[in-house]
Amino acid sequence: MAGTQRYMRYIVFALIALILLFFISSSSSVPSAQWPNYTSETPADPVGKPELATASGAKDQLAQPTTSPNDAKTLPPAVVSGDRMNATFVTLARNQDVWEIAKSIRHVEDRFNRKFNYDWVFLNDAEFSDEFKKVTTALVSGKTKYGLIPKEHWSFPDFIDQDRAAKVRDEMKEKKIIYGDSISYRHMCRYESGFFFRHPLMLDYEWYWRVEPSIELYCDINYDTFKFMAEKKKKYSFVISLYEYVETIPTLWDAVKNFTTAHPEHIAKDNSMKFLSDDGGETYNHCHFWSNFEIGNLNWLRSKAYIDYFESLDHAGGFFYERWGDAPVHSIAAALMLQKEELHFFNDIAYYHVPFTHCPTGEQYRLDHKCHCNPSDNFDWNGYSCTNRFFELNDIAKPEGYEKEQ
User: Fold this and answer.
1) How far is CA 32 from the centre of its chain?
2) CA 213 to chain centroid
3) Which of 23, 28, 288, 374 has a beta carbon 3.0–4.6 Å from 328's, enabling a disulfide?
4) Handedness of CA 312, 180, 210, 294 (dihedral sign)
5) Is 70 exposed, middle or buried (0-12, 13-18, 19+ CB in 10 A)?
6) Catalytic site residues?
7) What would you measure as the largest C-alpha separation in the chain, in angstroms?
8) Is the dihedral of CA 217, 218, 223, 226 positive or negative?
9) pLDDT tens column, 350-392
10) What residues are paired with 90 via a beta bridge?
11) Across-strand partners of 243?
12) In which element (H, E) is residue 28 found?
């Protein structure tokens, strides 16, 4: 009898437990929320607050989103309307540079050229590989063209003493002068100084923008830089300037003075000699525009004045007996043969080429143009920069906030 009562109690407790579980599960089985299917036919609420259908069937608006959506009106169009200038990007590269130049192209396209679709000319002292062509063609929004550099433009000219040139390279190697023992670097500097603008592919154009492998652009460029140069009557531009390595150009200025004495007709009256010299041209202060970035006029480089200048320097032998760079060669020509107002500093083109950065001075500009450079990295007002000298020469007011970057 006692055992039967005990079993009955177990059965009652079990029934009570089942009843409690039933009520708990019933109270928590609220229908799950159903998110609306947003399509072009059923747009979300115009103020950006999508609606949620609740279990009761009523629609309650969600709280204001915690992230800020892009305002489509402020984004640049995929292609800017209007006429294009007769212009191209130009890059001197080798096949093994393909992935480094790919990075550069992405920066240029994303920040500028996707809106304008300018062409791109690639030059090489060897035939470009199929891989190089496929990768770069896929990245460039304009037409791509691939040119082979003639052997006579990428070799020792017949007036160079090969033994003397080799001895110089050995001496520079011992002194650990950058690229001091490199033959290919010397060919590159000579080619950029006097031949790239004469390549058959380049003869189709009036303006060029030089782009090197591994460069970066930090800000959106929403206007046509080529059209700006033409409308403002500019012929040469830069973003970074600095002092050249003294050991690489010991006799360059002497060669320049020989040229100016022989061809005074090529020297502009209102030139930028003060950018180059602190004593009226007697000596060179080694300031130059860093030519791995240039936007310039090809007709000026193809002019008799510039060709006479290059040939005079070329026969002096300094590209091989020393290690003259194309940067001081271009810079001296621009400073002496162009009017001051024909040179331009692009403060708004944020640029990096190892190891220097140009980050536009001016916080509001950086915010408006979605810049991602650190202003503390800006080289402009550094003591080794010559940009301050350019501003003083042209009596240009320095950008607001430059003091914080010195």
Assistant:
1) 52
2) 10
3) 288
4) negative
5) exposed
6) 294
7) 134
8) negative
9) 999 999 999 999 899 999 999 999 999 999 999 999 999 999 9
10) 121, 210
11) 287
12) helix 2-28
**Buried-exposed string 76-114: b where 16+ CB fall within 10 A, e elsewhere:** eeeeeeeeebebbbbbbbeeebbeebbebbebbbebbbb
Beta bridge partner(s), residue 142: none
For residue 44, how far is the Cα from the chain centroid?
39
Greater pLDDT, 6 or 87: 87
Half-sphere exposure of 126 (CA within 13 A, CB side): 9
Taking the C-alpha atoms of residue 119 and residue 85, their distance in angstroms, rounded to an integer, is 11
Q: Which amino acid is at 160?
A: I
* C-beta separation of 112 from 211 below 8 A: no
Cis peptide bond upstream of 355, omega within 30: yes
Task: Supply 230's token pair.
Answer: 């033409």
Overall pTM surpassing 0.85 (yes/no): no
302, 235 contact by CB (below 8 A): no
DSSP state of 369: T
Q: Are strands 216-217 and 351-353 parallel, antiparallel or unpaired?
A: antiparallel
Residue 274 phi/psi, 5° resolution?
A: -65, -20
Percent of the chain with pLDDT over 70: 81
- Going by pLDDT thresholds of 50, 70 and 90, the confidence category of residue 25 is very low
Residue 275: is it exposed, middle or buried by C-beta count within 10 angstroms (0-12/13-18/19+)? buried
For the stretch 136-149, pLDDT in tens is 999 999 999 999 99
Cα four-point dihedral sign 171, 177, 182, 184: negative
What three-state secondary structure class fits 110? Answer: helix
